[in-house]
Amino acid sequence: MPRLIHIIILIFALTLPARGQVRGILGLPDRIMSSSRIGRVSAREIPVTPAADTSRIQFPDEGERYISEDYEFFNYLKDNDFRIDAKTLTRGRYAPSDTLDFLRAKVLFSDLKLFQASELFGKVPYDSPFGPESFYYQVVSLSSAGEYDKAYGLLSSLSIQSRFSEGGPYAELTALQAAGLSILRGQEDEWLRHSSSFTFGDYALMESERVISEIGQRRFGGKSKHAGVAALASAVIPGAGKVYAGRLGEGVAAFLTVGSLGAITAENWVRHGNKDWRTILAGSLCATFYLGNIYGSYMSVSIENNDRITAENTAIVYHLHLPLRTVFR
Amino acid sequence: MSIICIFLFVPFSVNGQEADPDDPLEEALRWERVVYSSDDPVIAQDALVSKAACLSGAGLYDEAIRTLDRIRMYLLSPEKASEILYLKSLYSKEVGDYGAALGFLEESGLAGDNPAFYSVLLAASGRFPESHDQALKAISSQSGKAAVDSLFRKVPRIKKEGTAAALSFIPPAGHIYLGRPWEGLLSMFLNIGAAGFTVFEIVGHDWVTGLLGGGLLLNETFLKGNITKNIASVEEANELSVKRFTENLENLLHSLESLSPENPN
Lengths: 329, 265
Prior knowledge:
The complex is a heterodimer. Chain A is mainly alpha-helical. Helix content of chain A is about 65%, strand content about 0%. In chain A, helix 5 (about 100-110) packs antiparallel against helix 6 and helix 10 (about 170-185) runs antiparallel to helix 11. The termini of chain A are far apart.
């Protein structure tokens, strides 16, 4: 009876710190091992991508003055990052104009109201002085909002191709955005086709071309880790899958925990027989932690891959936007 | 508010449309336009102060501080510089940055003019004896002073990580030190159970079970659940106790000030 109490304390003490954090019976042991002192050695923070705010804005009625009179003032506000003032300015009573649409769209874009920004950028005609800039900002707005197909469709439309892609001043910028969007859409052939236009010679574009080329090669080069390999590695040597996933500390913690429980099971088996309740209990715990580690290793690689893809996608969208500041300065 | 009103006399010319007088953001934009168009640095500084006042009126204290940060302090007279620092202190407190608020207030040299405010900021920074002195200065009535003294008899003790770590070796002393006796009691029972299991197994010659199983258990109950957790909780416990005390002090001073003869309303 005292041994039974000890075993209950053992289970309780092992599960108490992880209570409320687990998602399933197989996730519990992995959580316990991962949260140990050793397990946390290689822990890292998962990047969070902010969600787009799509709430609608009511603009005031049109007025008499033209925003172009305040264009320099608007640029002063933007350049100094006085966002609230820029927003207040474009909210004022101005006569409708392409410039007003463009500036309002820029403010909405800064506020991450991406769909509204895209809509307003789209209202600026191509032959307006702000036409090209609005067009490429519209592509970036849609890309930032996750609307990759729409953004790519915009870039690929016939009228755009004839205006911007065929040897015009923005041909390479179009190719850059199309290549980035091809990666985001998982289209390797299109990525190869568009990235073949990269010259790496334009100061405004070369850094973004390099980043997008590297990401494309990594994405389509088949160098990513496989969750199945991690699971198999942990099945052979507990913790090996975690090491494969790049989490050395968690791997060592898993190895020590599963190994200790295995040794305890073996001792009880030898001393008390395989049908003794102590052997069965220790063996059950060992099996649970062993399976939990396999599951955890599989999930670690999946999470690692998802995090990497998310980080790369964020980098691509950033590099679709980055050159615009220089190109349209 | 009187400080803000001084600067509202600044003349300005706006080349834009009529602003909505009820919208503090429109007003702030008008002042920013003054800064943009003015060639006179003195007018620009005053416009920035007025803009900060508008932003604070809209509840945008962070933006207000950012605006005041743009002021070139070396262009101001010592009196004006003090007033700007005082405003920064007020706004910093509003955004919950008591440390910065205290720094600005002390730098402004106006701390003595508002002992109640100073007392609250000192308490939030853990400087309780000075906070006590300032609180007494802020209150004129004897009953009020008695209430302040009574509150300061219960100042929170600032916990130390080293003490918490040392006491954690004797469960539940570490938990009790941090003001969590019931959690400490649970921790004590778990540790006794884990230690008992270890000894029992070793005495019974189940060496592997005793050493490895006991080690795993004690790692959870003693190392993680007791020592590590208590050390990690010290800062949180200190912040919480100081925050509670500061809130109590602020409420007390507010109630006493509003009931004092100088403020009959």
